[in-house]
Model the fold of this input.
Amino acid sequence: MTIPTRRLGPDGPEVSAIGLGCMGMSEFYGPADEKESISTIHLAIDRGVTFLDTADMYGVGRNEELIGRAIEGRRERVFLATKFGSVRGPQGEFLGVCGRPDYVRSACEASLERLGVETIDLYYQHRVDPDVPIEETVGAMAELVGEGKVRFLGLSEAAPRTIRRAHATHPITALQTELSLWSRDAEAEILPTVRELGIGFVAYSPLGRGFLTGEIKSPGDFPEDDFRRFHPRFTGANFDRNIALVREIKLMAKAKGCTPAQLALAWVLAKGEDIVPIPGTKRRAYLEQNIRALDVTLDEEELRRVDSILPPGAAAGERYHERGMASVDL
Done:
């Protein structure tokens, strides 16, 4: 199949309708397999998935280095997005958020070197720094555009008021925020705001961190170094409540003749042509499954059925722990 494209905003760049989130290739989701990860990236590019997503904090820079190796000789076929602002120490410790202009520049230079490229296609502020006016941060990002080091600017997990102030400083091309069947907060205010301003929406974790695939049966399924072991939605009574919702999605997917993951991705894709989901995977088999979600079409009756199973707010538990929730919607 030929993978269709979508545009990030009315006047923004065209990218593949489904992207590839690369975070799990280096950290957070159990053991890494560099060979399989690079093979997955190569397959994605060969299949027409042009939109790759990473960040400097994933694996404390290792994820950018991995992508740099994977895209060598393929750079012209890739729309490359990375992020800055979530600061980590050399041992991986989380040190907070930084949006200072001097940090913006140093972070960009470091990412360019790790990625082995001269230009980053889409550069996001990963989290908003509450101690630095957004105008100062975006102003520094705009300087990078002027110097040719960055093509387009983005924000991640920003509140509507922050998006408006940032966009008034320099055009924002994309807003990246979690959106899936069990994380629908963005539908209330974020999506209307970016649509009003002509900003594209990039949906991360569209498969609910793997929960919506239907493959997870118990918290014990996760490796020791998988962060989901401690995630609010994957623990205790919340897990039991959420797994019951997924069972309904699995039944619907079976009747539809697709996988639960494909149904979940089809739902995100159906929310609008201005939305690009970036499901993460580090295995070629799951990449192929995700791509085939583009062949799944949900009619109005099916969309209503999905809404009845997982309406906004249906998932039990917050989408991050307390510290993580304090850094979103700023």
